[in-house]
Amino acid sequence: MKTMGVKNRKPILVLAVGIFWLGYVSISVTQYFNKMEQMVIEDNQRRLKAIEYHLFVAAPLMAQGQTDILSRNLEKAKEARDFDFYLLTRVRSQSQVGGGSESGAGISSEVVDFYNPGGTKEDIARLDFPLGFFRVDQPGSTSLGKAVQEGNLKLSMGVNMNGSLFAAKAVLYQKWDLIQDFTLVTLFLSILLYLILKDILDLTRILKSRDRKPMADIKARSKESQILLAATDQFEKSQEHLKLTNQTYAASLSPAVRNELLLGTKAPFQFDAYVIRLDVNGYTQMFLERKTEFVTSTLNRYFKKAAEVIRRYEGHIYQYVGDEIVFHIKVEGDTRSTGEEFIAAHLPTEDAGLEKAVSCVRSLFAVAQEMDQELRGQGVPFVVKAAMSRGRLRFIELDTGYAFAGLPLIESVRMLGKIDEKEQNILAIYSDDYVGVRSLAQEYKTFQVAFKGFQGQTEIVEIKDFIPIQIFLEQKNLAVIKWFRSDADLVTLMEFLGDQIGLVGPDFFIKIDKILRHFEVEEVPSALAQSYERLLTKLIEWTETRPNDENWNVVLSSLIALGAHLLKSLGLSDSLRALLELGLKHQDPRVRGNSVLTLDELSPETYSFHELLSHPTNRVVADVLLAQGRRDLQSQVFHQLKQFLYSENPFFVASGIYVLSYLYDYHRDRDPVYFKANPYLQQIPLLIEPFLSHNNVMVQKRAEISMGKVA
Predict the structure, then answer these.
(1) Torsion of CA 96, 101, 105, 110, to 10 degrees
(2) pLDDT of res. 360
(3) Which residues pair with 146 in a beta bridge?
(4) Which of the residues 57, 346, 534, 646 has the least number of beta carbons within 10 Å of its own beta carbon?
């Protein structure tokens, strides 16, 4: 069903008051004028009789020439509204005045007295009333009158028969009383409706905000609002329950299956991949000799850290089988894999998938070594063995769900069973694959085996030693550095970058930054946070000595943004806070802007940044509005962003479009209820669309990109 957006709807209080006044005023005005017309007709009949009486009484006075007394009598009579106007004239000519008309040569008249509210004596003098009966000969006139003449004095009296005009004059006369009445009724109605609808209005306000906790404090005042509140509360609870249920079910599915389902993969589907099996040596002995709690907690810590490392290499875990992890890494060419587009374009290698898979195992060995250092002192060595096989995997649907099938799963099992080494971490791969990674690893031994069910001998290479990252750092070999993603590697990389400031150009730092953006550090070790802070401190000191060097300012702004990406789960330490606050005062707008976003990301709702809203640079102000809009997109932020769109500066326009589309996409994914209830978010697509035909190419391209997000 097609529905109108929130932006097209009016608040219920405005609708209720508006509909009431539309009906009330329409009915009241119609009734008022109808009654007024009838009253005018009845009143005019009364007044015509009164005019005949006053003309009868005036005739003797006119005959005696007592105009002063006549004028006083008429003055008293007009207070009773017995007539609307009168005219007393004296005929100067001695000629006969026939039919009450002063037409003819030599005839003139002098106005002795008159009463004509809203008009002049000339206006009334133009009206020609006959003697003896009510009529007027003036075309277009709505007045009705009668005249009497005694001697040279003539008295004409009449009424205005236009009821609508009378009603309009009456309304104008009573306008302040009517305005006061309307105001009081509107105020009373608004208060009444507000009290009746207060709980609904409060509920609407809460749904439009990010904070749903006040919903529990709403007290229903009516049965309808109680039902609505209960339904909304139940919906919120159901949504939270559904979210937790989905998380539970998602956790029950293997990450590899879940990834294909989220991507919308239709089974059956085939793709090339490296399948890796990782097995803990001595698990059975550990299980028999140690308490179940110790074994479980040890494996859980290992699995948790191993799963994070696998995700850093865009790998997907298929199974946990006891102490064994089975996962795969897709061969390049699957464009759905995140992060590899940049690397493939900027840092080409002969077989990126192979290097990535072997490097992932190397990082998993680093996790095992950390566990071994901790547990060996307790008499529990922690050593792992791994086997890797490349081939076609099939994503299939079974009667119990989804699964993977293919030779690599079988081959990796057979290879793993051929590893005899128990004291060192070992990786077994085919000799053909080893040729592609000789720059990363060192051969331990080679042997040939015959796998059951396979024809011929297969040559297997076992690897236990890998080339350390320091060698490639000294060579500035970015094509290989990109595959070092363990915690220890990241710490080493940060320390190396700090030592290289001033020795290498800014481009090297920018390329490293782009590599690090392609994976998440979910559980940040303290050593990584400390090495990042040391690097940031050195870089700030370096840029302070060359404030006008644009390239190094770009490096600094990028490194500050990287902090929000790498350290998100750790939060904001006092020392890092002090460094980022220095960035808020930096002269470069990119450094300031990224400092705003990083502070807001690592310490939400701690800063307001209001003092930066007056900054003359679009980048700084846009980032402040973006930070505030992520928390809650309210009127002030939205209208400031609209002002960006109306700016004559195309950079401000482009920034406004970017922030609006970002907030639209951000809140749509984060909270669907808030997204639908917030009227400002619903206006964003219509605001951006006109800029698709903007005369500035930069603005036009930004609008095209943004419309792709909000579509």
Answers:
(1) 90
(2) 94
(3) 157
(4) 646
